[in-house]
Write a structure and sequence with these properties.
Blueprint lengths: L3 H13 L18 H9 L3 H15 L13 H10 L5 E7 H10 L8 E5 L8 H12 L8 E4 L2 H10 L2 E5 L6 H7 L3 E3 L2 H11 L1
Length: 203
Amino acid sequence: TDPMEGICKSAARGLAHFGIKADYHDLTFFIGPPLLDTYRDRYGMNDEQAREAVAAFREYFQPTGIYENEIYPGIEEMLKELQDKGYFLAMATSKPEAFADIVLRHFHIRDYIKVMAGATMDEGRTNKAEVLAYALEQMNISDLSEAVMVGDRSYDVKGAQAMGIDSVGVLYGYGDLKELSQAGADALATTPQEVVELVLATS
């Protein structure tokens, strides 16, 4: 889904907790990476401050921001076609697992996802490599050539590389051609249907 409004408004709430004013439209760099990392790296917060910012983020996100997003056109069709072709679909996200589950159910696409792998609320598992390692373990995949990570940010690509699996960078999200190419995505797709075609072509 496109989570811009909900995540960026929540991110602004975390900044406001420290008196930092920001237009939420300018905070799209919060989409993708772990929140703690972004508050620390972008705003020089220490660990305690970053945790406070994340807590303020969640005060808005949990009741309201989580629903302020939209499903990308063609996503459900992509999931259905891959499922019908016999593919095992998993979610690997740096968002807290419980929040991701709510979003999938809100858009009525949870049933396509056989394994849900996300961040833990205590930030014990947050980066994409950790999340992917957990997903692969839950999927009982031993032959990594059978797995592919589909994502829109460099963090997805680099997480896949760390796990030794291929990646498809999608250009309908928040990572552009430069970001995904420089990260080393194995393939690029501009639409969900192109993702299907790439997966089917390499199977």
